[in-house]
Design goal:
Blueprint (H helix, E strand, L loop, with lengths): L1 H23 L4 H44 L4 E2 L1 H15 L8 E9 L5 E8 L23 E14 L14 E12 L7 E2 L4
Parallel strand pairs: 1-6
Antiparallel strand pairs: 2-3, 2-4, 4-5
Amino acid sequence: MLRLQRHAIRRAGTHARGLWTLLRDRSGAGAIEFAFIAPILLAIYLSSFEITTGYTTARKVLKAASTVADIVTRQTSVDKAFLNGMIDTAEATLAPDSTQDMTMKVTGITIDSTGSAKVLWSWNELGGAPYAKGANAEVPEDMRSPSSFLIRAEVTLPHQILLFLASGASATNSATTIDIHRDFYYRQRLGDEIACTDCS
């Protein structure tokens, strides 16, 4: 009986030592921890990349809109041919980013003595009139000076998001596109208003 007890104790001790050795063995722990952390680190890196590139593109789109508005407000009058040249100006400002499918609008806005803003003329990259003449125009409150004139330039550029976690992305289509839109207002530099001789 005593012999059996000693044998059972020896076996229990052997099992305990084996379990302790297994618990102390961390040779595969690093690989397991990395397998858990790597996707999180990758997502953080890609998110940072997307935010940075998106912010840079948004700043360039705003600069393109402000450059177009600035050039137009230096004129006493414009026409469609002149405004069509603003497409090249915007593309040069956005370079080296792709400007495929970029859209642009330039609007002459007159503000009467009561501060009411109306569209005097408008133009887009297709040569059309995106806003009806005489329609109400959205103008920031701090720009609504009575009896004044404004030029509003709008630039919209599609921006591709590569992040696989982007909304609307799928396993087969890992990229999606958002439109970055910026507009800019400038007052006319010369005269009371800037006419577009062949715009609607």
